[in-house]
Amino acid sequence: MGKRHTARERERLIELVRTSGSPVKLVAERLGISASTAYLWMKRAPEAPLGFAKVVPVSMSTGPKLTVAVGDAVIQLEPGFDADLLRQVVSALSRVPL
Q1: Is residue 40 part of a domain?
Q2: How many domains does the chain have?
Q3: I want to staple 67 with a disulfide (CB 3.0 to 4.6 A). Which of 4, 25, 27, 56 is the partner?
């Protein structure tokens, strides 16, 4: 039976892989974790938070609006928009190559 790792070790590896851009194998070696274990953790890890969407300021002269850019897609939101629908749209866009 192999070494047992803590949840914090798994979280740290996943975070380092996602933020550093380094290969899984290299990060695993630095942390003393086998590459096969690291690849398994990455496969089972929940999706990364959406880090590609940004809020784009819009002139207030046309009324209060919020513009969200997701890749090349731009979504303009009016006051009273449906936040659940927006989450679904952004989630769908994150899975489609733009």
Answers
A1: yes
A2: 2
A3: 56
Residue 30 pLDDT exceeds 90: yes
Q: Is the pLDDT of residue 98 over 70?
A: no
- Given phi > 0 = left and psi -120 to 50 = alpha, else beta, which region is 71? left
Q: Report if residue 20 sits inside a domain.
A: yes
Report residue 54 as tokens.
Answer: 């940004």
Q: From edge to edge, which strands make up the β-sheet containing 73-77?
A: 53-56, 66-70, 73-77
Distance CA 66, CA 35 (A): 43
- The answer as to whether 77 is a domain residue is yes
- DSSP-based helix, strand, coil % in the chain, nearest 5: 50, 15, 40
9 contacts: CB under 8 Å, gap ≥ 6: 31, 33
Name the amino acid, one letter, at 71: G
* Residues 72, 97: Cα–Cα separation, whole Å: 10
